[in-house]
Amino acid sequence: MYEIRVASSRVEKELARIPMGSRKGIIDQIRKLAENPRPSSIKALAFNVYRLRVGPCRVIYKVYDNEKIVLIGRLARRSERTYRNWEKLF
């Protein structure tokens, strides 16, 4: 089992802005990452950095296998800005 962590309080604020109906699905998908941090539905952005699509939202996260940690860096609705400066999230 991996531990789910957020990189900053910004992720929690981003989650609070998402409508309640979508929020529950996103939280469920993030919890599933604890069991399998690399499901077939992800896209690799870089080494150990991935993007998970949950409806119109994207979850950008990094996997630390040695420490068994999944670090959530960004959670946002898809737009031009979603992937901007993702390297600085971790």
Helix and strand run: EHHEEEE
Residues in helices, as a percent range = 10-25%
Output the radius of gyration. Answer: 12 Å
Distance between the termini: 21 Å
Give the biggest sheet: 5 strands, mixed
- Identify the overall geometry: globular
- Which band does the percent of strand residues land in? 35-45%
- Name the CATH architecture: 2-Layer Sandwich
Low-confidence stretches: none
Give the C-level CATH assignment: Alpha Beta
Number of structural domains: 1
Q: Mean pLDDT, as a whole number?
A: 90
Return the structural class.
Answer: alpha+beta
CATH fourth-tier homologous superfamily? RelE-like
* Strand segment tally: 5
Going across the biggest sheet, name each strand in turn: 1-5-4-3-2
| CATH topology term | YaeB-like fold
